[in-house]
Amino acid sequence: MSDLTFNKIAGGVLLTGLVIFGLREASDIVFKKTEVEKAGYEIAVQEESAEGGAAAADTPPDWNAVLTPANVAAGQAVSAKCAACHKLDASNANSTGPGLWDVVGRKPAGHPGFNYSGAMKDFAGKQPIWDYDALYTFLKAPGKDVPGTNMTFVGLKKPEDRIALIAYLHSLGSTLPVPPPRPAAAAAPAAEGAPAADAAAPGAPGGTTAPAAGAAAAPAAPAAGGNTAPPKA
Ligand code: HEC
Asked: In this protein, which residues make up the domain named Cytochrome c (predicted)?
């Protein structure tokens, strides 16, 4: 074999190698390898929706006002998203997730016989019971509220879905009392009105308007009676 032939063959082999290598690199660029972060599959029921603005003002509602039969009914429909992993009936059996009968008012990680994650057990250290507010926050983004939880559910973005669902969960054998009506709504105007009321009380205007109204109403009634009386007679 002449040197030239050898060079040609060697060059060919080298070129082939370079082409193969180049193609592999190129395919790595084209088809990005993604690491599988979590084993198993994720049931992502609720998609992220474009309501970033609402997120900032996502405070729990006045539970006294929203635990209504209408919300219980609406919440039952929402609970279909939970039923893939949770039993919601009175058997309270565990499945992928713990039974959710009587979960409202229950201690987090407190269902007997369920193998909770360390994250959920830790959470129980700072959250003594699943009260309305705690569920409201948890169900929005379980993985954010309890980082490391085994509940691979993306969450319910819409406040009305969570409110309805919590009303439904509360109807499932929960003994947690319904909170009293929130005074906040009534207190805000009252706080503003308070000084005015104090000022009016000692002053004359407050006292005079009441009798004045009464006085005005009093003559009006007989007058009306007097007017109607003649046609009758
Ligand atoms: C993909 C399965 C899955 C879905 C869907 C799911 N969960 Fe869970 N859930 C779990 C698992 C697993 C746990 C236990 C979490 C842990 O130990 O970290 C859990 C825990 C919980 C807990 C805490 C219970 C306790 O005893 O402390 C509540 C409350 C809860 N889920 C409510 C819901 C609701 C309401 C829905 C529907 C909106 C839902 N989950 C949807 C799997 C799921």
From this structure: 70-173
